[in-house]
Amino acid sequence: MTTSATAAPQVREALAAQTIELPSWAFGNSGTRFKVFSTPGVPRDPFEKIADVAQVHRYTGAAPRVSLHIPWDLVDDYEALAAHASDLGVQIGAINSNLFQEDDYKLGSLTHPDPAIRKKAIDHHKQCIDVMRATGSTDLKLWLPDGTNYAGQDDIRGRQDRLAESLQEIYAALDPNHRLLIEYKFFEPYFYTMDIPDWGTSLVHCLALGDQAAVVLDTGHHAPGTNIEFIVAQLVRLGKLGAFDFNSRNYADDDLIVGAADPFQLFRIMNEIVTNDALKEEAGVNFMLDQCHNIEPKIPGQIRSVMNVQEATAKALIVDREALREAQISGDVLGANAVLMDAYNTDVRPLLAEVRAEKGLAEDPYAAFNASGYLDQIAAERVGGQQAGWGA
Amino acid sequence: MTTSATAAPQVREALAAQTIELPSWAFGNSGTRFKVFSTPGVPRDPFEKIADVAQVHRYTGAAPRVSLHIPWDLVDDYEALAAHASDLGVQIGAINSNLFQEDDYKLGSLTHPDPAIRKKAIDHHKQCIDVMRATGSTDLKLWLPDGTNYAGQDDIRGRQDRLAESLQEIYAALDPNHRLLIEYKFFEPYFYTMDIPDWGTSLVHCLALGDQAAVVLDTGHHAPGTNIEFIVAQLVRLGKLGAFDFNSRNYADDDLIVGAADPFQLFRIMNEIVTNDALKEEAGVNFMLDQCHNIEPKIPGQIRSVMNVQEATAKALIVDREALREAQISGDVLGANAVLMDAYNTDVRPLLAEVRAEKGLAEDPYAAFNASGYLDQIAAERVGGQQAGWGA
Amino acid sequence: MTTSATAAPQVREALAAQTIELPSWAFGNSGTRFKVFSTPGVPRDPFEKIADVAQVHRYTGAAPRVSLHIPWDLVDDYEALAAHASDLGVQIGAINSNLFQEDDYKLGSLTHPDPAIRKKAIDHHKQCIDVMRATGSTDLKLWLPDGTNYAGQDDIRGRQDRLAESLQEIYAALDPNHRLLIEYKFFEPYFYTMDIPDWGTSLVHCLALGDQAAVVLDTGHHAPGTNIEFIVAQLVRLGKLGAFDFNSRNYADDDLIVGAADPFQLFRIMNEIVTNDALKEEAGVNFMLDQCHNIEPKIPGQIRSVMNVQEATAKALIVDREALREAQISGDVLGANAVLMDAYNTDVRPLLAEVRAEKGLAEDPYAAFNASGYLDQIAAERVGGQQAGWGA
Amino acid sequence: MTTSATAAPQVREALAAQTIELPSWAFGNSGTRFKVFSTPGVPRDPFEKIADVAQVHRYTGAAPRVSLHIPWDLVDDYEALAAHASDLGVQIGAINSNLFQEDDYKLGSLTHPDPAIRKKAIDHHKQCIDVMRATGSTDLKLWLPDGTNYAGQDDIRGRQDRLAESLQEIYAALDPNHRLLIEYKFFEPYFYTMDIPDWGTSLVHCLALGDQAAVVLDTGHHAPGTNIEFIVAQLVRLGKLGAFDFNSRNYADDDLIVGAADPFQLFRIMNEIVTNDALKEEAGVNFMLDQCHNIEPKIPGQIRSVMNVQEATAKALIVDREALREAQISGDVLGANAVLMDAYNTDVRPLLAEVRAEKGLAEDPYAAFNASGYLDQIAAERVGGQQAGWGA
């Protein structure tokens, strides 16, 4: 059994180096179609969101980047926003476009039958690319919410063809150091077809675009029962896994804290990452969170999420690869499984505590943040104004 | 093959007598957590909603009742609202309580650990019972949105016990001619546990309460693959099917137009109703719609829904029951299926057109309404104010 | 409303020309892991299976080809088998390989860690290619049952790499007029990973192989809720839909009669075929059945299946494409849906009866076959010997 | 953090006392409808199966009972079989009836339209009750495989009524110390309706029967996404949880090793057992395994399964109940979850090793058994004859 005492130096190094990108919107209010509950202290603008992001990084040492969402994070001066982030020790990460909150997009955006609306949606991405240039971001992240609710409502193939054209225009606007990351989703906000419902469709479009396009895998965007680690392994094999959107689910796109619903699944995913050498930065996989803290406090929710990813990663790193390979090759089904489970069943929290201590961090970031008084402070200070949410 | 020419008189009578209750909220705006699209002409208050309900009834002749939702349909004078409805030819149907839009209910309502919040939720039902008395409604419809998002968040059994107590208090407040209809739902707005997730739980509580309690079956509230007509047959057998909430789904609680996603399923459901003699009024099954017209116009959406239920019912009514029973008893698997499919494959639209014509209605209510100019009229008239939605 | 009286000549021609390929194994016994029920008259060898296939073609006029499965349809003399088929008016269609019934394949076939076992599995396909040459078949159909039951049991990516190599060897053995059709499946017979679990994986391998490789879509091989017609449209768009395996399902790979579980889905699938011009022979889509008649008689089950596909096709053919396109372009959600539903709700059985009568066939093939006495005849004649099943 | 050093004595006692019942059929061959792979050394009769059961008990000290399946475990002299078991240190547990392997049951057993076939199925249970008397078993376990494959095939309600009658007859034949345990299943071997598809239906029949009837919860018999621990809590609350059939699944009724697919789910289930005081013997919950070791060796598979249940139980036992309750009552969502996860994340293997050592057992039963040479021994000895499987 690997323990904190016996973990190899490269395990500690990998854990110390691991970074997770946070979504600015996780710090604002979110909810279901039934209700968005509010919480005292929630940020009212992108500057306050980034201040909260910086808290997560301060206590975990593992969250140095924040994804922005345009127009939710629209500001007059993006250089100022990037400088504000930099002052607080974090950087701007991926820029997320928004194709679901304009009345024009009721029946589609990049796939809309009307070329004028497609143009509007394409132009929005050019605006996002400008934000990338202003903030130093290199990843343009596109989740296409387009779809239909009723059979016959629109032509499935026609929408694919229009999508391909729209993506070509966006792709053509990228700088050479930019990437276009294309996310898929099984359903919601539309309930009959989605125009990018699965990794296959996302891949088909990425292959048509070129090397700067890659797939985003949101762990909550699959059909029930889908083996996600298989998709991870396949996309890494093809060199086309651009980023994760981490969260967890029991039913649909529940957007719960990553690792909360099925920690063993998260471990299996990270195991594919580790065994296929995709944890290191040059593999080009951006590990992001994308969650909704509907009923729990947001900053502690993000800290717990980062810790959950770290624990899954630590378990993946201590898998005895040689023993595993031997058992696999010899056809020892239970033996191979046992090697994997031995790592999973190990309590890696002491190991992570040590890695944190070596970096001068609190051993338990969740407890340390909760003891800091920051939540009380923002609840007291952030009075008045409009709390940020999915609309801003 | 049964056709409009050969349909038995009792089939025509049953179709002519069938009624479907409409939800007031289907005429307001709805959407997903991502966006609520607005539409010109949407009602701004319960009186305008009822005016739109009356249009559906005017053209279909089959929608004489409207469900209210409290507090969305809060008015100062419910007698006036009931009189307004009556003037327009419709009546107030079930009164729906709302347990999901108070900040107090973030962690539960009737199941909340805090007795003060449970009391608030119970009192809300007493308020609804007052509305029932004022409007002549006899059905109190309770959908419990309570649940949890994370394992350990609350005690599953403790919540059941508190729920049982809260329901007892509500039940005790009913008048003798009132019913308490209890709906179940698989998930949403919570994503780990729901406190009434399935028909079994709903039934357990109804049995504990007594004869005035019955189950509401919402066709969109089941796990993937669930055989809904089995549940219909079982609840009818137990005398505990109080009402339907009709809608359709491909993925989750999509709330699409009933019959749109799987018309064969709707037929199979109505077949169990017909074969178990639960279509007639004395069976006590209230056939209601509960849908969201997120992207389509609302009144035509409701008209189409009523027509879909009528078509499924007509097909169920023309099943050759004797031939079916013979094939079933003789173990003729394909033959029995063929009898059912013969009815399903029949085009019953001519038959329904005749039944409508006999009642002095347009043969195609959808076309007739669209030709009436009503949508243009309300778009022109209903300017200013706040469009109704799930919040009002 | 389109009726038999108004259907355009090209609709009748398309229906008259449509062919559906039957699987030889549907005429043998099948069942679940719990029990294989037997039926009097079931064929005992490939010659008797083909005799039964010919009955389906005799009464439907639409089933002129039979898929063989090797080794279940192993015979000494394939020319003789092909001649026997030809004498009865049918031809040999696709040759299906079998990778799931050798003890050697317990842990994989084309993906097995042991190169000797991979070679055995590859060689089996070369044997199948010889059968193709002997019978005039041009389609080699490969369903890969390989997978794992436990996390860690084998290396996911390693298996993909080995699969790619194995497929290359098989592909290299094809004649220029041959196709390699690669099927995917969500789960079963393995329950953790499948090595080709989805259309994306199948496509990735087809793209790596070349123009002679295409995807097989089995309608029962998807995750719950998957929108199958989207995949159909996408694969047709990419020129990579090689064949269907038609059947229907409510839960898993139930292999029920096509159109029995969800006739509207079958219509939507055929609608994508028709609207994307993939019904005509030069589109290269082979429409096959793949079903298990566990409890119903097999020949009538196949006849019903052919009729179900024909009815869905007829409905797809009578969709008013111009009206549909107009409604789609104008954003008339309900109007577009109504155009589609108008076709679906039409009773096309009279039209198909006419098309059959024009070909000199009985108007109702199911009734005509049942009246023929053939089932009694084979029950009387086929006494002794071993009934064919999945093992032979 | 609770560790082996700090675990309370009552935790150790509960772990030392826990027993898990093994199914005789897990030691025979099993498979899918595609293939049953064989393994050297597999038992050829019930006596050899019990010898293998005894091995699991010898190394785990926690598996003192074996469930029999009639007729698979049919012997001439059940007293001799019970004595054989007793000699090897184990006892006969539940008697399982078999309603799925007679040709007569093709269209149903206890629900069959033909009273003669229902009588045959009822009589089979009387035979099982005789086996109970001969072996000292007190639990009659009934899994009803009955169902239909096609809509219309039979009358859903009629089948419920016939089922209720058949169950009454079986129940009337029980001795006063007997229980009738009724299992439900979502689907398979039928694919349209199952006659007992869910816990609600099982409960309805148990309530109609009386106090000697209780529900069996098989962890693999639910719709995708079903929250199983909720059902556990509800059935315990109602005093109607009679037994578990433990196994794990990713897709359907996969019958994998319990805890293999989702160890966190198993922990949550055991957490409901522990927190609702249902672990102790007087609660009347029989914890049984029901699995298929299709590709892995059977005895090690059973040992691993017992260990997985023990680990989940240990984690449930060390939950800090007071801290949990406080967090729950105070509405501390993340805090309550953290209390639960602290137990789950603890490595309880050292604690279990100590508990075993205190009982004089090997600390790692899996390793100890594998080192024993028993598998080689039975492979050498059990040559010739017919290996046991689901047919015998």
TrEMBL record, chains A, B, C, D:
It is an enzyme of class 5 (isomerase). GO terms for molecular function: L-rhamnose isomerase activity; manganese ion binding. Gene3D superfamilies: Divalent-metal-dependent TIM barrel enzymes. One of its GO terms (biological process) is L-lyxose metabolic process. It comes from the Bacteria. Its EC number is 5.3.1.14. Transmembrane segments: none annotated. Keywords: Cytoplasm, Isomerase, Manganese, Metal-binding, Rhamnose metabolism. PANTHER family: L-RHAMNOSE ISOMERASE. This is L-rhamnose isomerase. The lineage of its organism: Bacteria, Bacillati, Actinomycetota, Actinomycetes, Micrococcales. The gene is rhaI.
